[in-house]
Amino acid sequence: MKISEAGIKLIQSFESCCLTAYRDGGGVYTVGWGHTGPEVRPGLTITQAQADLIFEDDLVKVERGVADLVTVDLTQGQYDALCSFAFNVGLDEDEDTRAEGLGDSTLLRKLNAGDCAGAAAEFDRWNKDNGKVVVGLTRRRKAERALFEAT
Cα–Cα distance between 144 and 82 in angstroms, integer? Predict the structure, then answer.
C-alpha cells in the first residue's frame, strides 16, 4: 500500500514544518516535517524543498516499516492511521520487547491477531511524552483512531 493524500495531510497537520532545528517536547532535535536523526543538530537550517524531500524519504521508510510489521489486510484509513502513528512514535524495529513505537506495541499485536477494535483502543494510550500527557498527542491519537476506525 501507499499512504494517501489524506494520510499525508494528517501527518503534516500535526508535524508542521520548521526549517530550523529545534528541540521537540521530548528534547529531541527536529527539523522539517518532524524529521529527527543524528544529522539534526542545533543551528541546522534547511530549505522548504529539502524539508519536502526529507519528508518523502521519511514517509517511504514508514510505509515499508508498516508493511513489514502488519500481517493482516488493512483498509486505506487503517494504513494511513498506522503510518501517521509510526511517523510520530517510530517503528521500534530493535531487539528489545519494550514498546517504544509500533513494532513492540500492543496496538500492533492486537491488530495482527485480528482484534481491530482492541487495536483502535490502543491509540489512546500513546498520548504521553516523557511520561506526561500532551494535549497535542491526545488530539493526534484521537484523529488517528478516527481514521483507523473509518472503514
Answer: 8
Q: What secondary structure, in 3-state letters, does 52-118 show?
A: HHHHHHHHHHHHHHHHHHCCCCCCHHHHHHHHHHHHHHCCCCCCCCCCCCCCCCHHHHHHHCCCHHH
Predicted TM-score (pTM) of the model is 0.93
3-class SS letters over 15-30: HCCEEEEEECCCCCEE
- Tens-binned pLDDT, residue by residue, of the chain (151 aa): 999 999 999 999 999 899 999 998 888 999 999 999 999 999 999 999 999 999 999 999 999 999 999 999 999 999 999 999 999 999 986 667 666 799 989 999 999 999 999 999 999 999 998 889 999 999 999 999 999 999 6
Contact 82, 66 (CB under 8 A): yes
Q: Give just the sign of the alpha carbon dihedral 94, 95, 98, 99.
A: positive
Catalytic residues: 15
And the C-alpha cell for 2? 501507499
Q: How close are the terminal C-alpha atoms of the chain, in Å?
A: 16
| Cα dihedral sign, 75-97-135-62 | negative
